[in-house]
Design brief:
With 78 residues, this protein is mainly alpha-helical. The chain folds into two domains: 39 residues; 39 residues, no CATH class. It is 78% helix and 0% strand. The longest helix is centred in the N-terminal third of the chain and has 30 residues.
Length: 78
């Protein structure tokens, strides 16, 4: 019985509300960023990505992969 009371305690309810509010806030931020990125000229994005990859040679082994995918996506020749 104590377990059920612990699950449904007001504190637990507050945690759930905080998590849901945080998720909602993150989704709003993501949507706004996505909207802002879609307004940018793809050539500008491609140039910035190209500069990022050449100006930071000390990337770890996992970091170039997403940059390469983005470069491929925004490459003006594609």
């Amino acid at each position: 019985m104590a377990f059920i009371e612990e699950i449904y305690s007001p504190l637990t309810s507050m945690r759930v509300e905080q998590v849901l509010a945080t998720e909602f806030t993150f989704q709003e931020i993501y949507d706004q960023l996505k909207e802002d990125i879609e307004k940018i000229d793809p050539d500008v994005i491609s140039d910035k990505l190209e500069n990022s990859t050449t100006s930071t040679p000390d990337l770890n082994t996992d970091e170039p992969k997403p940059l390469d995918k983005l470069l491929s996506k925004y490459n003006p020749l594609n």
